[in-house]
Design a protein that fits this description.
7 strands, transferase, golgi apparatus, 13 helices, transmembrane helix, heparan sulfate 2-sulfotransferase activity, P-loop_NTPase, extended
Length: about 350
């Protein structure tokens, strides 16, 4: 072979090398196609086996209880001024089409903390009120730990958080000027023309750092320590609940992504939600009127507070978790978001069917 290569003209040697390279690429391509075909065959067989198992279970009468999707209850304990009305209106628009119930939890004086007896009543309603299932409950209520009450079938919690200073600024002007959702409704601070910057400069109570303490206690729940402003324990408990008790927590600044992921995870409720949000109907877009962005000086003054540092730490924690979930669920192409396809399948299902 070595002698043949020496006797072969350089031109033919180059052609031989090229031909060998092409042949190797062809063989590798065929091997890859065979591997892809084998994987597709395995998935097809696995799907067939799953369907066969489900068919046998149905014939054996195993499914004598309602399907899971028909028994689900979602609780959206919405934090004020995080875009919650915009999102909730989508649920109201979808409930007739997707056949679920929407219930507003209206507490006296918008108190987010329930009495012990009201917590028991609420837990009993949510878990046993079959006529309202599947159900979507929403309201400005702190997290309720259903596991404390010995009930079966815990609800699915979701929520949305917002940059703490942006949320406070929005709430400050909302109390004075309302929004475009119900423009005729008289608000509690209507007539007060003082800007947020003027309030911060004067050390007013409506813009004090203590007013930032809201998202942490809403996630922390009904423990007394949750409502002690600046409590490190409350912050850690809020983080724990966010990770362990909530299916998904979005951020106001990326609400479309949040809605898209909910539609993918819970289509029984949110099928069609993304398209509905994109239409830009007035009912889905609620904006506070007369809102003036704060100056850098006002922001810097608030950021000196330990309360802001803790609320911001919680917000950044929620944002990081949301972006982690999104990175494994959504991609962007040509300015449009799209969901990733299912990336798992079942195989080696035993015992085999008869």
């Amino acid at each position: 072979m070595g002698l043949l290569r020496i006797m072969m003209p350089p031109k033919f040697q180059l052609l031989s090398i090229l031909a060998f390279g092409v042949a190797m690429l062809f063989i590798e391509n065929q091997i890859q196609k065979l591997e892809e075909s084998r994987a597709k065959l395995e998935r097809t067989i696995a799907r067939h086996e799953v369907m066969e198992v489900e068919r046998r279970h149905t014939q054996d009468g195993v499914r004598d209880t309602p399907p899971l999707a028909e028994d689900v209850v979602i609780i959206y304990n919405r934090v004020p001024k995080t875009g919650s009305t915009s999102f909730t209106n989508i649920a109201y628009d979808l409930c007739g089409k997707n056949h679920f119930h929407v219930l507003h939890i209206n507490t006296t004086k918008n108190n987010p903390v329930m009495s012990l007896q009201d917590q028991v009543r609420f837990v009993r309603n949510v878990t046993s009120w079959r006529e309202m299932k599947p159900g979507f409950y929403h309201g400005h209520v702190a997290f309720v730990d259903f596991s404390k009450y010995g009930v079966r079938g815990k609800p699915v919690y979701i929520n949305v958080v917002r940059d703490p200073i942006e949320r406070l600024v929005s709430y400050y002007y909302f109390l004075r000027f309302g929004d475009d959702y119900r423009p005729g409704l008289r608000r509690r601070k209507q007539g007060d023309k003082k800007t947020f910057d003027e309030c911060v400069s004067a050390g007013g109570s409506d813009c004090a750092p203590e007013k930032l303490w809201l998202q942490i206690p809403f996630f922390c729940g009904h423990y007394s320590e949750c409502w002690n402003v600046g409590s490190r324990w409350a912050l850690e408990q809020a983080k724990y609940n966010l990770l362990n008790e909530y299916l998904l927590v979005g951020v106001t600044e990326e609400l479309e992504d949040f809605i898209m992921m909910l539609e993918a995870a819970l289509p029984r409720f949110f099928k069609g939600a993304t398209d509905l949000y994109k239409t830009g109907k007035k009912s889905h877009l609620r904006k506070t009127t007369e809102k003036k962005p704060p100056t850098k000086e006002s922001i810097a003054k608030l950021q000196q507070s330990d309360i802001w540092k803790m609320e911001n730490e919680f917000y950044e924690f929620a944002l990081e978790q949301f972006q982690f979930v999104r990175a494994h669920a959504v991609r962007e192409k040509d300015g449009e978001l799209y969901l990733l396809a299912q990336n798992f399948f079942y195989e080696k299902i035993y015992p085999k069917g008869n």
